[in-house]
Amino acid sequence: MIVLAALGAIACRNTTDPLAQQKREANYKAALQTYSEALKPGIARKDVEDYFRTRGIPFVQLGGSVKEPAFMDLVKIGEGDHPWYCSEHWVHIAFHFGAGEPNNNHRPHDSDVLKTITIYHEFGGCL
Q1: Residues 6+ apart with CB under 8 A from 101
Q2: Of these four, 3, 87, 98, 107, which has the most CB atoms within 10 Å of its CB?
Q3: CA–CA dist 50, 69 (Å, integer)
Q4: pTM of this prediction?
């Protein structure tokens, strides 16, 4: 009985209200559109980050990788439903940059150039 109750609780926890999910997705897309209208590809990282700072928008930099050597900037726009094996799901707008100069020290540079802006999902507390 206890096992069945636990499985039922997990199943109920992971079902999402489709209307609430649609509303969240619409809000994410609206945030993406707002940032995409204000910040166009080709502008420098410094200008993007100055935009955030002058408007009091908190952001973090996500480290570069072999695939994307320039750091991304992330602006949190919400939290979503998470699978049972994770305890958190954050939704961000991700600002992807191309390296404006050789990035041998794996640090963001003011001269990095904005390439694209996307919605980025991040899960935390996963098994």
Answers
A1: 109, 111
A2: 98
A3: 21
A4: 0.79
